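Quick one: structure for this chain?
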Amino acid sequence: QFAKEADSDAFRVGFNSLGAYATINHLHFQAYLLDAPFPVELAATAPLPHASTPTGVRLSALVDYPVRGFVAELEPDVPPSRGLPLLARLIGRACELLAASNVPHNVFISQRGRRVFL
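Got it. Here's what it folds into:
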């Protein structure tokens, strides 16, 4: 919601979990206002067609990138008012599972909240 309300494609939000550049146990967020894309935003992706995602949300894997990761994004025709809550629940649940398994992770939100890297 925060990225959507900023109403700028240059605005991005990042989160680091404990062990993923967060050095103490607290919520570690960053906000970025940059006109140029981050390298991960330009990375190649491969769709995960059998992934169980809500209607209107596409899940892909990063391809040939230095770290493993996924991209969850709203389909172009899905309005943010309907799609952002679906995307937030999907990413939130994935983060819960990673945290419960003690897997350090980062979240990067771009395109006004419509595209999330994990």
